[in-house]
Amino acid sequence: MPTIRRYATALLFSVAALGLQKLFVIWSGVPSLGVFYPLIFILAYRSGLGPALLSIAITSVGSALYFYGPGPNFSVGSSADFVRHGIFTLTALASSIMLNQARKSRAELIAAKEATEVSQRRLNEFFAKAPLPIAILTGPELRFELVNDAHRKILAGSRSILGRPLGEVIPEMPKELGEALSRVYRTGQRFVGQQYPFELDWENNGRPYFRYLDFLYEPMHGPAGVEGVIAFAYDVTELVAARKALEESEQQIRAYAEAMPQMAFIADGQGSILYYNQRWYEYVGMAEGETEGWNWRDQPIHHPEDLDATVKLWQTSIATGAPYEVQYRLRRSDGSYRWHLGRAMPVRNREGEITRWFGTNTDIHEQKLVQEDLARAVKARDVFLSVAAHELRTPITALLLQSQLRGRLLNRQGAGYFGEDKLREMFAQDHRQADRLARLMDDILDVSHLSRERLALHRSDIDISTLVAELIGRVRPMFQVKDTVLSFDTPASLMAPLDGVRIERALSNLLLNALKYGEGSAVHVAVSVQGGQLLLQVIDGGPGIPLPEQERIFQRFERANASADITGLGLGLFISREIAEAHGGALRVESVPGKTMFELRLPHR
């Protein structure tokens, strides 16, 4: 009620009360203030304290003016009238204050009740319309007190529910869930149940089928303790179906993985390994199940030099979803490492999230070795072409220079300039350069044949003693030029089924090698037979070959001394060993400072 209206009403009713009092005085002859109490009480309770105070003031002043004297005045006829008037005023004032407070309390109570009713309506509406099935069961028998529409629909259909015990309403309830509800009621501890199958008439059409539900049972507390249980149900049928589909898909993938010749693995979306196929267990020498809780990053499976790069690439793929591909060495059960190509692809769900990684490890060890050999071959080819160009250019350049010099001398001096001694010297120079060029070409041709595995042998019975003597006779002048003593020791005659041309080539390489690196020391050739094998030993007194170099010098394009003063393609020892092995023999070296021996072992018979 608006404020002006409330005060106007108080004024109007107070004046009316004074009028009634006047009539009462005329009728009874006795002034009475009691007629004003109902008015003041009603105003205090209905309109508030302000209008009540206004009414008290009007009625009190009006009574004093018109009812206690011979005319309108403020005098009081007697002390009793004064006391009665004061009691009226105080009583009316106190009553107004109390009634006004009662009015406020009532208003607050009504407002609280209305708010409670609104909240209750909203809660009931939410409860009834909640998409999840919710039920409230009370008492030891767990009777249904409240059930929302979703719960009524999927668990009870059209059956009567409220007030009935759980066992009557849902007799098909799994025993475990019924016991769980009773336990929650007794103990006050919540219960969570997952993926329980229910065969019910879900659509109320007489055709029951299975669906899967998760359950949450919460105790409902009251003044006396647990009064009931609030039951929530969640339909997870689609989730279970998706999980089963994923499991079936994984089973198929695992069947394919077991049929693969490669090692295979499956990881979850975060990169944790879930599965290895049998090939993997066989390779690493572990039993299936040993990898439970196993972290491949902490195990000595990957080569230490490859592990950091492998982990970094795997983490990048997990973070970005990019396909994973890396080459690394994996330790086999025998402790050896073999090169593998590791690949993995992500598997995504409908939302695009990565749920699985499917990967393989393919053995590429042989290919890797071939690649490494090819790289070494390419490098060796480049070195060979560089050295060969230099070595071939030297004799050719010498021949060209000598030819140009002779032409100029012929033009200036005439033919008479070239006497017999001069001609012999020129022929000797030409022969040395041509011989050097021929040896280089022989080396190149031999390497070409060896590279194509075409080192054919033409065996015949030869006298190795004669072969050695004739070879030493041909090369002795070269040793004499460098003041190097060359000696040999052979039996009078020693026959063996060998390719004489190839053996002479191998022995010639050993002799020229001793001449190059012997630094002027004496060179000795010894021929003997031991244990059914023919031994040809070339011994020099040079500085020796360090032990780490003694195997390397038999490789292509390798030399014991890479000094620019030492010429050659670095093929002599390689060709000599290949010739020895083609005969079923071997070539080895023993060297210490001050003595080096190359021993050529060949079958005697």
Indicate the topology.
Layout: H1 3-28, H2 36-46, H3 49-66, H4 79-129, E1 134-138, E2 143-147, H5 149-156, H6 166-169, H7 175-187, E3 191-200, E4 209-222, E5 225-235, H8 237-259, E6 263-268, E7 273-276, H9 278-284, H10 304-320, E8 324-331, E9 337-348, E10 354-363, H11 365-413, H12 420-451, E11 460-463, H13 464-481, E12 486-489, E13 495-498, H14 500-517, E14 523-530, E15 533-540, H15 572-582, E16 586-592, E17 595-603
Parallel strand pairs: 12-14
Antiparallel strand pairs: 1-2, 1-5, 3-4, 4-5, 6-7, 6-10, 8-9, 9-10, 11-13, 14-15, 15-17, 16-17
What does this structure look like?
There is one protein chain. The chain is of the alpha+beta class. The protein folds into five domains: 3-107, no CATH class; 130-235, Beta-Lactamase (2-Layer Sandwich); 241-363, 2-Layer Sandwich (Beta-Lactamase); 369-434; 456-603, Histidine kinase-like ATPase, C-terminal domain (Heat Shock Protein 90, 2-Layer Sandwich). The protein contains 15 helices and 17 strands. The strands form four sheets. A five-stranded antiparallel sheet has the order 2-1-5-4-3, with helices on both faces. It has a five-stranded antiparallel sheet with strand order 7-6-10-9-8, sandwiched between helices. The chain has a five-stranded mixed sheet with strand order 12-14-15-17-16, covered by helices on one side. A hairpin with a 4-residue loop joins β1 (134-138) and β2. α1 (3-28) packs parallel to α3 and α2 (36-46) runs antiparallel to α3 (49-66). It is elongated. Mean pLDDT is 77; it is low at 69-76.
Briefly say what this structure is:
This protein has 605 residues and is an alpha+beta fold.
